[in-house]
Amino acid sequence: MHLQTFSTPVRTVLVALVAMAALLITTMSTQAEVRIKDIASFEGVRENQLVGYGLVVGLNGTGDSAGSSPFTQQSVQGMLQKLGAGNVSQEDIETDNVAAVMVTASLPPFARRGSTIDTVVSSLGDASSLRGGTLIVTPLSGADGNVYAVGQGPVTVAGFAAQGDAASVVEGVPTVARIENGATVEREIDFDLNSLNAVRIALQNPDFTTARRVADTINAHMGDDKARMLDPTTVEVSRAGREDIPLMIAELENLRITPDSKAKVVIDAKSGTIVIGADVRIDRVAVSQGGLTVTIEETPQVEQPEPITIGGTTVVVPETNIEVEETDADFVVLEGGDVSLQDLVDGLNAIGVGAEETISILQAIKAAGALHADLEII
């Protein structure tokens, strides 16, 4: 890499790179091999989302208020009637110790009846904290409307809230809680892997090259052309000659391949973090960065009245000093039409560049058509 400067001192930037101050770059000389199970999923092996509505009781005055959350009163009234407490009017129900909540959970693949799963409990009303509460029996349903699990148990809150007459402190989110092993599976999802004539592998990141490498690796392992790429996401493997599909999946998921991906630069403008992929390339380009710095300093002066002045008052006279400093716009030229990420990183290590400056430079180079990569700003 050869640098040619047009003016000195050089107060510039190389070209698209990564900078410190909340800036992270990973440079790889070779791509790593990964297991198929780490970049893809198998047909039928998936989680299912469950949801339910319930009540958390036993709160120490941090529950829903009756005026703001009438549905909590209605839920308490219905629960008491089901439990044989007789007719209880809503006017007689105080909800300071009760909170209406949504309960969510993920049903693992092939979960068996009687196994337990974790649940997340989230407040629906204006409760200030769920700390110390207990979730009452809550059916958890799937997208098909069937109940697959039932949740109950004491909730665990990571955050806290404390309030006084003149100040309050809130740490974390005290209105969201977890229950470890808080739900018991009551219904199993019927799915027999051995009923499949073929196994489909779905890549997490669609890519034609990666899908072809998966198919080639599987064919090399099994000895026949049993795997074929259907699209950039899906690879289908025939079960011909195999009676045990779970055993075949166990073999396939541990095969290693080298995944491919598009060249990409990802920028998090909020934190100033920039991540540049290993395949990013930049054409020959000249980059310049100049700046204007304005410094404003307030130095108010206090003037006192004369000693014998009647009715005199102390006054503050404002005084403002403004300084303007303009830096030179110097150019740096990066020679060579195929500059790799390693070249870019090496070139920037010798020049200090702020995160905001680097983001602006990357956007400008992309607009000029010299950055051969997707630029994604999150």
UniProtKB/TrEMBL annotation:
Pfam families: FlgI. GO terms for cellular component: bacterial-type flagellum basal body, distal rod, P ring; outer membrane-bounded periplasmic space. It comes from Salipiger mucosus DSM 16094. It is found in: Bacterial flagellum basal body. Signal peptide: none annotated. Assembles around the rod to form the L-ring and probably protects the motor/basal body from shearing forces during rotation. The keyword Zinc does not apply. PANTHER family: FLAGELLAR P-RING PERIPLASMIC PROTEIN FLGI (PTHR30381), FLAGELLAR P-RING PROTEIN (PTHR30381:SF0). Belongs to the FlgI family. One of its GO terms (molecular function) is structural molecule activity. The basal body constitutes a major portion of the flagellar organelle and consists of four rings (L,P,S, and M) mounted on a central rod. The gene is flgI. Keywords: Bacterial flagellum, Cell projection, Cilium, Flagellum, Periplasm, Signal. InterPro entries: Flag_FlgI (IPR001782). This is Flagellar P-ring protein. GO terms for biological process: bacterial-type flagellum-dependent cell motility.
